[in-house]
Amino acid sequence: MGKNYLFKIVAGIFFGLMVSCNNSSDDQFEPSANDGGNGNTPTPPARVLEKITVNNSVQEEYTVNGTVLQKGMLKDGTTNNYYTGTVTYINNKINKIKFIGSLAGSTSYDFSVSEDSKGNVYSATCTGTASALIDSFVSDYAFTYDATGKKLVKILEKRKVSGNTAYSLFTEITFTYNGDNIFKAECAKGTLTGTGAPNMATAKMTVYSYQNYDSKVNPFSTLPKSFFTAWSLVRPENFYRISPNNPTSVYVMPPSPAPAVNTPMTYLYDGYNYPVSDKDQILKYVYRTL
Q1: Contact by Cβ (8 Å): 106, 81
Q2: Containing domain of residue 31, as a range?
Q3: pLDDT tens track for 229-284
Q4: Is 113 among the domain residues?
Q5: Burial, 166: exposed, middle or buried (Cβ in 10 Å; 0-12, 13-18, 19+)?
Q6: 124 within some domain
Q7: Which residues of the chain have pLDDT under 50?
Q8: Which one of 21, 65, 167, 249 is most buried, counting C-beta atoms within 10 A?
Q9: Who's near 36: CB < 8 A, 6+ residues apart?
C-alpha cells in the first residue's frame, strides 16, 4: 500500500473515525446527548451522506445524482492529498471505481468490480499506477461470503508487481463478526509459493479491531457498500464502514515492533439515530435529504 503505509493507517483512523454531522437540507435534527434514541424512533426521511467536515473544512464529499453515487472525495489521512473515486455503472450495478489523488505522484487505483444482487462485491481487479514502475501493480481479488451471502468472511488478493506477468505477492484478510458488525479484520501479507498459493511462513500480520459498536445507523450505509469495500482494499482501516452500526473504538496492531494504536470515538445522534457529531462537535456529518 506504499512506503508510508503505517503512517497512513494511523492518520486515516484519526480522520476517518472522529466524525460529526450537520444537516444541509431543510430538515434540521436535534442531536441527543447520549444514545440518540429511546426505542421509538420515527421513520427517517430518505437521505445520503453528503459531506464530512472538520472545523468546517471538508474531509469527505459525495456527489449523488438522484439516488446514484457518481463520485466520492476522501482525505488521505493527515496529508494534503485527497482521493476522488469516480464510479461507473453497467445495468445499474457498479462496474468501475477509479481513485485518483490530488497530489502529483500519487498512486492511482483503478478497480473493476462485480456485484451480486445484494450489492456485495464477489470479484475485483485493481490496477495501481505509481510514479515509479516498481511501485505499480495489478491485483486480483476473490471474495468469500457466509452461507447467507450477507457477511464477508475472507478476501484473497494476488498481486503482480513492477509490470511482471506472474503473481508474486498476496494479502489475505479474514473477518470475524460481533452480530452483523465486523469486529476484526486480520490482514496477512506475504509472498506466493511457486504454485501460486499463499506462503503463510512469509506472512506479516496487521490486525484491525473495530470494537464496542453502538446500535445506531452507520452513515456510510446510505451509500453503496461496493464503494467503501474498494476504498478499504486501499486503506484497510476503513472496513468498519461496511458494517450497519458505528464502532466506538478502533484498535490497530501492526507487525512487530511497531506499537499498537487505539482510537476511541464518541457520537452524538439525531432523533433518527444517525450520528451527527463527536461529543465535541468538531467533526460533522452533512446529510442530504433525497
Answers
A1: yes
A2: 5-67+134-219+240-289
A3: 999 999 999 999 999 999 999 999 999 999 999 988 989 999 999 999 999 999 99
A4: no
A5: exposed
A6: no
A7: 1-38
A8: 21
A9: 214, 216, 267, 268, 269, 270, 271, 273, 274, 275
